[in-house]
Each structure stands twice: as structure tokens, then as C-alpha cells.
Amino acid sequence: MEKYDIIVVGASTTGAWFARQMAQRGHSVLVIEKNERENVSREYDIFHMPKKEMERSGLEIPKEGDVDFGFTFDGAPMLSPYGNYPKKNIPATIVGLHKHDYIMRMSDYAIEAGAKFIYGASFVDFVKDEWGRVAGAKYKTAEGEFEAEAKLVADCSGIPAVARTKMPDDSTVENYKLTPEDIFYVVIYYVVYESEDVDPMALHSSFLNYKAVWSAPSGNPRGAILGIGGNYSYAYAEEIFKQWQKNVPWPRYTVEKVEKGMTPYRRSVYSFVDNGFIAMGDAGCMTKPTCGEGCTSSLVQGEIAVDVIDSLLKEGKPLSRDNMWCINKRYMEAQGIAFDSMRPLLKGVVQTSFDEAEYMFKKDLIFSTKILGGGGEDLQLGAGDIAKIVGGIAAAVVKGKIKASTVKKIINGLLQSTEVTNLYKQYPETAEGYWKWKEKADALWEKIGPMSDICDLEVLKRLGIK
């Protein structure tokens, strides 16, 4: 049986990046990927990553003329339901990339660093040691079934989380499977504007009140990507896109092609690590709460994991749950608190009617530059911020701009956001305190519920979903 330091399951963004990082540090790495090389990451042609985040994570930025380079542009503002009152993002350069080609670039760097890739290899199960702990992986190819030993198995398989979902029920890593309620079904329309007078770059924007609608560059100087994400199904997402089309004035266009894909949209797993195991990327549900993007946001955890795991291996220490627990704690402090505390707040505020949201955009209440501009990455709402929001909303109720029932939902979202923040700040220093903390977290998230709770019930009924 072959032996490695690390087995990576999945060779898309997170898997290829992690494999390269660990191989460059001198560790033996095996990557198993269910798709053949030519089919990896083919769900989308174009995807976008912030240049600053790419640089932070050591991702090369292609130059014009490279097969994987698309374009660069400045980040887009968030607009009201009727396309007004833009809330500008933190200034940032966004890089448009051809996804498959860029993932191949990442994989080739990992291979050059010494990682071994096996394509067309599906994860079957774990190899266990005599104490029942993860000690490697079983995988299947066209040639048969194989086993390999490893000090660590990293699940980078995305939404299926094929390894994480096989963890035992008593693991500190949750083994839940994502349901249609936990997933954003993304439909991307590549469009070309009919009038040559239209400047596509001037139209780049996003619309939170439809859960996720956005316009972004496509690489065509006369075109763009119009995207929509929604829970339950692609059909539901497309129905919400129709609502946007009715409400927001937009230049006429022709659709050239349509792409579809999925991204997790729920809170991240409470713990990424157990003995000999770590969940990373979409397998751990680390996505930005305002848009569901996970490519670079997942690398925040990745950078922490590389630092900790590399040190443990070089010190000859086991990759045990206790030794890797600090990855959980450090991730919570670096990003987890900000991301997951924003989810109940967003759930509360997007329950406003379009007219109510329009008013709040205008008055910078909730739909403000401070809350929306950072995409949830640096959200810090103090008592003064909350008092200002509550006061502004109360005044809006008096003026008849917002219903009292809507206020209740918003305030509830604010309070639950604060509850998540306070609880996550108490995340246990060691695995010993995990189970008591998890009981509290489970109760809180049961009360909060998923974002899918606020989907349009009439649309769901019409589509036969509910």
C-alpha cells in the first residue's frame, strides 16, 4: 500500500491550491479527482476572484494573452430592488478567469511541486487504523479499487463532501449532507447588448433583495454575465430572475449561452478537523454570506491549515484532532464569526418588501455601505450602530415607510446576529469543550433557520416544490 503525508480528495480550486502548498513544503501529497483532467471545473467558463485575495493566498495572476486570463475590472456596487442608491464595495480589482484553464494552471503548479494527481479516481471510504481513526483513503478508478495510507485526508470535494459525509456520528466534524434548501442554484446568462451605445462596464452591480442577482464582465466588450442564485432549484432561481427583469430597467440584450452550477449556502461546519481529517472549501461550507462565493474565502481557512499542518509534520507530531484544533479557533477569529453572524441579519433584512428595501437603501438603513460594502468579511456592528439602525427604522414606521411586522423581522435578525457573534467568540479552545458548545450552537441555528425559509412560497407552489 502506498503511503503519503496527505491525501487530497478533489482537484478544483481548494484541492489544487492545498496540494501545491503542502508539496512545496516538502510533504508527500496524493490528489484523487473523480473527473478526468479535461472535465475538471467545467460547470462555468468565467469565474471571478479579487486580485488582493489571490495575492494573499499565493495565487498567480495570469496576464493578457494567457489562455486562462479573461479580464480585470473594479468591484461592483450593491443596488436597491429597483436599481438605485448604489452601496459601493471596498475598492478592489477583480480578475476574470477561464475556470477550467486556471484550475489546470493550479494543478500543474502542484504537480511541479511534487504532488501526484490521479484523475478519474472516486473516493470510496476511509482507511482506518486499529483504533478506528482515519489513516488513509480507498478510491476507485477504471482499473479497480485501491488503498493508500496517509497522516491526513483533506476533503476538498465540494458540495458532495464525499469524505466528510462518511465521518462517524460521534466525530467533531459534522457529517450532514447538503439539501436543496442549503444550496444556491446558480444560473449564468452570457448576454450581448443590442445597442452599441451600452457600456457594459457601467452596469456591473449586484442586487441583494433577489437573494442574488448580479451583472459582471464576460470578456465580450459588448456583453456581460447576468447571474441569479436561488435555493431549491434552477427553476426557482430563474423565476426570481424574472422578478428582477420586471423591476429593474435594463438595456435589451441577446442571450448567447447559459451555464448552471451550485454553491453551498448555509453556515459552515462547526469543526473542520478530527483525527487524521480536515474538511476544506465547499466541503466545509465556507462561502461569503452576501453572494455565496467560496473560492478565495475558503483559502482563509486554507492558509491557517497549511501553517498548522506543516508545523506539526515537521515537528513529527500526529495530525490529531487535539493538535489541529487551533485551525478551528483561528478560522473563527479570522472569518467565521463575521461570515456566520451576517447570515441571520441578511435573512431578516431581505424579508422586507421591495418598496421597504428601496426606502432603506435611500436612507442607508441596514442596506448601508458599512454592512454591504465589505461583503460580510469585516462586519463589526457595535451598540451605537445597532441603536442608529433601530432609531432609523422606528422613524420609518412612524412615517409609514416600513411595516411593524417587517421591523420585527429586522430586529430579530439583528439580535440573532449578535447571538451568533457572542456564541462564536466563546468557541472552545480545545476539543474537550466542543460538545457543550455545539448544543448551544445547534439550538441557536435551529431558531434562526435556513435562508430558504424566506423563499417566495407562491413561486415554490407554482413550481411544485412546496
Structural account:
The protein is an alpha/beta fold. The protein has helices spanning 13-24, 51-56, 99-112, 234-247, 298-314, 321-349, 354-363, 369-372, 383-398, 404-425, 434-448, 457-462; strands spanning 2-9, 29-33, 46-50, 69-74, 78-79, 93-98, 116-119, 122-128, 134-141, 144-155, 183-193, 205-207, 213-216, 223-230, 253-264, 273-274, 277-279. The protein has three domains: 2-78 and 87-174 and 266-336, FAD/NAD(P)-binding domain (3-Layer(bba) Sandwich); 181-264, 2-Layer Sandwich (D-Amino Acid Oxidase, Chain A, domain 2); 338-461, no CATH class. Strands 1, 2, 7, 8, 9, 10, 16 and 17 form an eight-stranded mixed beta sheet that branches. It has a six-stranded mixed beta sheet with strand order 5-12-13-14-11-15. A three-stranded antiparallel beta sheet has the order 3-6-4. The longest helix has 29 residues, at 321-349. The protein is globular and about 70 Å long.
What is the CATH homologous superfamily assignment of the largest domain?
A: FAD/NAD(P)-binding domain
User: What's the domain count?
Assistant: 3
Report the CATH architecture of the largest domain: 3-Layer(bba) Sandwich
Put simply, the count of helices is 12
Give the N-to-C terminal Cα separation.
50 Å
Tell me the β content.
15-25%
Element string (H = helix, E = strand) = EHEEHEEEHEEEEEEEEHEEEHHHHHHHH
How confident is the prediction overall: mean pLDDT? 92
Shape: globular
User: Main β-sheet: number of strands, strand sense, barrel status?
Assistant: 8 strands, mixed
- Going by helix content, strand content and strand pairing, the class is alpha/beta
- Tell me how many strands there are: 17
What CATH first level of the largest domain would be assigned?
A: Alpha Beta
Low-confidence segments, ≥5 residues, pLDDT <50? none
Annotated CATH topology of the largest domain: FAD/NAD(P)-binding domain
Radius of gyration: 22 Å
Helix content: 25-40%
